[in-house]
Structure formats: C-alpha cells, structure tokens
Design a protein that fits this description.
The protein is mainly alpha-helical and 102 residues long. Helices cover 48% and strands 6% of the residues. It is built from two helices and two strands; from the N terminus they run H-H-E-E. Strands 1-2 form a two-stranded antiparallel ribbon. Helix 1 packs antiparallel against helix 2.
C-alpha cells in the first residue's frame, strides 16, 4: 500500500495522531513525513496530505508532552505554571539533606 507521497506504508500502521500511538511512534512518523517531503518526489497533492497528517501528529505529540509535564508537576507537588526554584539536595548518611558540590 502506498501513501500520498508514493512511499510504502504498512497496512498494520496505527492512525498517526491517534491516542493509541506512542509519542515515539509519532516522532518516527514525523521524521518519515519530513524525509518524504525533502525527497522532492512527492506530488503537490501528496505533499499537502503529508502536511495535514504532520500537523495532526504535532498537535497530538504536543498534547502528550503537556500531559507528561502535568504528571511530573503532580509528582513534584508543584502547582501548574509555578517554577520550581531551589537547590537539589542529596541525602547523607544521617538522613539529612546536603547541597551537591560540583
């Protein structure tokens, strides 16, 4: 099966930008789209279809990044939008924190 740019597509591929694809799969597909567009063998219509697919994937990937960022903030106990300021502390043998010196 061939994609809009004439490139081979596997029939088992998940729909790019869907909630089932991983962030890494989306990045890989974006790289494939960029390579196809840079190859200059894609028709105008094919390029437009690839561009549309790419923008959908970018939106999905940005959403996944934001969700991951919120999860990290939740783990750190940080309120959304507030920066975490302070020194990183390492626990010493007595269980007290000490500043890292490097």
């Amino acid at each position: 099966m061939r994609g809009p740019g004439g490139e081979e597509m596997s029939q088992g591929r998940k729909k790019a930008g869907s909630s089932r694809t991983s962030f890494e799969e989306e990045l890989k597909r974006l790289e494939e789209i960029v390579a196809a567009l840079e190859s200059e063998t894609v028709t105008l219509e094919g390029a437009l279809e690839l561009f549309e697919e790419g923008t959908t994937i970018v939106k999905s990937a940005q959403k996944k990044l934001k969700e991951s960022q919120l999860r990290v903030r939740k783990v750190l106990g940080e309120k959304e939008g507030e920066p975490v300021l302070g020194d990183f502390l390492l626990a010493d043998e007595e269980g007290e924190g000490r500043e890292e010196s490097e």
